[in-house]
Amino acid sequence: MASSNERFTGDAGAGAGGGVSGGAAGAAGRVLVVDDDPTVSEVVAGYLERAGFTVHRADDGPSALEAATRLRPDLVVLDLMLPGMDGLEVCRRLRAHGAGTPHLPVVMLTARGDEEDRILGLEVGADDYVTKPFSPRELVLRVRSVLRRTSAAVPAGEPLLSAAGLTVDPVARRATRDGVELALTLREFDLLAYFLRHAGQVCERERLMREVWGWDFGDLSTVTVHVRRLRSKVEKDPADPQVIRTVWGAGYRFDAVPGASARTAVPAATARTEDGRV
């Protein structure tokens, strides 16, 4: 947790001033910060700029959507509570088919201790979240972690991954089901590719968080929600998954032949992992 002095230093840049504003150019990537609190926006922008990022800021939902479309940032830091249009709706619209930004990584800012808001943020497609009050340094680390996954080099000539009617092209970052392209977020794509690479293996949520998210610790409900979202896109009946199966007390397993291992797994409607989550 950052000290109040760290969170509210005034040397982080110019005020938002309404609409969209831009920051100093940087080489680490371009980030759009969306927050209607000018103090939070300034501090976050300042830390990101000092970390080498180009930062643009917006202070409401419509401005954020316009800036995301026009500026094509590499990532959006999005506050949940915004005037007029909240962060959940902004994220939904960014993820909507035809929006032009379905793969844009989103790190959401949520209120401390409000698990429901965090889960909702992940459900609508946020790739990560940070709870307020937060350490700006932690936020920078989270942003770098998400962008690392986005820009991770894929070995030249890595073959297509294919099973259960699903095909993943790691180089083009394109996934299809029965020939129809899937609209997957950054984390959903990485999670699906990981499952295909480890078909038939039981993957614990801790392992998925470590190897897909790159975190050694964190809220495991993040994995749970992303698995649920992925099932909604790859399963014929997400309520009775036959491809990404929940293994009692262990984790998840990708079955290359759908339903082939039903005796050792249980449907998502009734399955629970060790802490009681699906």
Shape: globular
Discrete helix count: 9
| pLDDT averaged over residues | 80
- The strand order across the widest sheet is 1-3-2-4-5-6
Q: Output the radius of gyration.
A: 19 Å
Task: Tell me what the structure shows.
This protein is an alpha/beta fold and 278 residues long. It is 35% helix and 19% strand. It is built from nine helices and 13 strands. It has helices at 4-7, 38-50, 61-71, 87-95, 115-123, 136-151, 186-197, 205-213, 221-234; strands spanning 20-22, 29-34, 53-58, 75-79, 106-111, 128-132, 161-163, 166-169, 174-177, 180-181, 202-203, 244-247, 251-254. The chain has a six-stranded mixed beta sheet with strand order 1-3-2-4-5-6, with helices on both faces. A four-stranded antiparallel beta sheet has the order 7-8-9-10, with helices on one face. A three-stranded antiparallel beta sheet has the order 11-13-12. α3 (61-71) packs parallel to α4. The relative contact order is 0.10. The model is unreliable at 1-18 and 261-278 (pLDDT under 50).
Short précis:
This protein is α/β, with parallel strands linked by helices and 278 residues long.
Write the layout of secondary structure elements.
Blueprint: H1 4-7, E1 20-22, E2 29-34, H2 38-50, E3 53-58, H3 61-71, E4 75-79, H4 87-95, E5 106-111, H5 115-123, E6 128-132, H6 136-151, E7 161-163, E8 166-169, E9 174-177, E10 180-181, H7 186-197, E11 202-203, H8 205-213, H9 221-234, E12 244-247, E13 251-254
Parallel strand pairs: 2-3, 2-4, 4-5, 5-6
Antiparallel strand pairs: 1-3, 7-8, 8-9, 9-10, 11-13, 12-13
